[in-house]
């Protein structure tokens, strides 16, 4: 990622203390950060803290250092503006073009990617006025991250919590890679995408299960990169020990049948369905035909064999449902794009092409797995097979880079 000039806008909310960690992540990555707080934000964390952590002067007013024209220059020179936390008040001012302080002036003059990380009480986040302001900002090309669900001020709990600073940073990192610095737009803005991640588990008894080695890293990378490109993201997560990506609705499941139900519910079929479904999870092909309600004890006798039965084929079912909807007279099938993943140990491309033909998906990401390959590693390599017979090879690199190539191909089909 190139070194960038970043403006960190900070508005007045109890979550301001978390923005100190976000600032540290930016500066330790080599970025030059200018903190622009609102006047009331300094009631939570003072100017000396921001100045010391950023190494740059801090002010809330347009009337300081007037000869440098800060209300124009700060926004003009920025490669990224991120507002975290973004209160309902700041979102409203940004949506309506108000410019009463240095932060709102900066938002008006910035011509770079802008990311808002809202934090407020649930009632404020769900109010029609706030939802309309968020829709306006997104329509103008800003990334507005969905807040996390959790403990708020006092005893309240619900959507409105500031996402983890490390996850906000990851979204900003991908925005920088794909934003103005790379000459790319938010090509998934207004799209709803569903992603499955991780590995399913099939219960044998209360302490044992049949599982696989999938860590969920690739699916979570797909989710982060989709948010950074403006998408609304639902992530069906199977047994993953990773923090929730910022701005993503996470649905947790365990078994293949639970994953099927969650994916079909989120994806839908018809005009209200998802624009794209990416099945990156490693779904168990088989499950025990019955489970023991008590732990199976070890004895001197050989254990009874475990009889396996087939699990539902979620990817094939998605393709079949879409095909049936189209045959019934639908003008356009939903989900519009279906992407499968194939983890293979041998005859990778041959097995991949056979799977593509069986499943009815538009794209199939085929990668070789084994010791040090695919599962649990930070990098990946793959070949994306297309239903039209084409293929795109992705060289080994970070899983986020592979995710961006997948979304490039999805966006191409959606457009």
UniProtKB/TrEMBL annotation:
Taxonomy, superkingdom: Bacteria
InterPro entries listed in its UniProt record: CoaB-like_sf (IPR035929), CoaBC (IPR005252), DNA/pantothenate-metab_flavo_C (IPR007085), Flavin_trans-like (IPR036551), Flavoprotein (IPR003382)
GO cellular component assignments: phosphopantothenoylcysteine decarboxylase complex
Domain Flavoprotein: 6-170
SUPFAM superfamilies, sorted: CoaB-like (SSF102645), Homo-oligomeric flavin-containing Cys decarboxylases, HFCD (SSF52507)
Region (Phosphopantothenate--cysteine ligase): 193-415
Role of this protein: Catalyzes two steps in the biosynthesis of coenzyme A. In the first step cysteine is conjugated to 4'-phosphopantothenate to form 4-phosphopantothenoylcysteine, in the latter compound is decarboxylated to form 4'-phosphopantotheine. Catalyzes two sequential steps in the biosynthesis of coenzyme A. In the first step cysteine is conjugated to 4'-phosphopantothenate to form 4-phosphopantothenoylcysteine. In the second step the latter compound is decarboxylated to form 4'-phosphopantotheine.
Residues annotated to bind CTP: 285, 295, 312-315, 341, 355, 359
Pathway this chain belongs to: Cofactor biosynthesis; coenzyme A biosynthesis; CoA from (R)-pantothenate: step 3/5; Cofactor biosynthesis; coenzyme A biosynthesis; CoA from (R)-pantothenate: step 2/5
Cofactor binding remark: Binds 1 FMN per subunit.
Gene3D superfamilies per the UniProt record, alphabetical: CoaB-like, Flavin prenyltransferase-like
HAMAP family according to UniProt: CoaBC
Record key words, sorted: Decarboxylase, Flavoprotein, FMN, Ligase, Lyase, Magnesium, Metal-binding, Multifunctional enzyme
Homology family: In the N-terminal section; belongs to the HFCD (homo-oligomeric flavin containing Cys decarboxylase) superfamily. In the C-terminal section; belongs to the PPC synthetase family.
Molecular function GO labels: FMN binding; metal ion binding; phosphopantothenate--cysteine ligase activity; phosphopantothenoylcysteine decarboxylase activity
E.C. numbers: 4.1.1.36, 6.3.2.5
Cofactor(s) of this protein: Mg(2+); FMN
Protein name: Coenzyme A biosynthesis bifunctional protein CoaBC
UniProt GO BP: coenzyme A biosynthetic process; pantothenate catabolic process
